[in-house]
Amino acid sequence: IRLWDVETYKSLHVFNGHTNNVWCVDISPLQSNNDKSNSIGVIGGNGYTICSGSYDHTIRIWDIETTKQLILLNGHKNKVCGVKYGLNELLNIILYGLYNKIIRFWDIRSNKERIIRD
């Protein structure tokens, strides 16, 4: 995964770890508070995180500020084709789909998964 500065067209960082094609990414949303300040409700840290899904059957979460991999979810029997952070009070949930049409959600804090569609 390559992170770009869209104003300068410069590559800022390459996130290495996946061993096959990365098929999908999502960036954690900012949550707007009443005092108009922004804060991240996902995984700790002070900045955005990236969630990536790959044909290597893994989902990885990366801290953009430190450029480190924070979490690895592996053990899937199929390719990960879609990832999406939850919104509002569900910021610690990742919704994802596999190549075999299974849809699951993953609670990052408890590290538990549930099947939505099999």
TrEMBL record:
Keywords: Repeat, WD repeat
Tagged with keyword Repeat: yes
WD repeat coordinates: 46-72, 73-116
Origin: domain of life: Eukaryota
UniProt-listed InterPro entries: WD40/YVTN_repeat-like_dom_sf, WD40_repeat_CS, WD40_repeat_dom_sf, WD40_rpt
Protein name: Uncharacterized protein
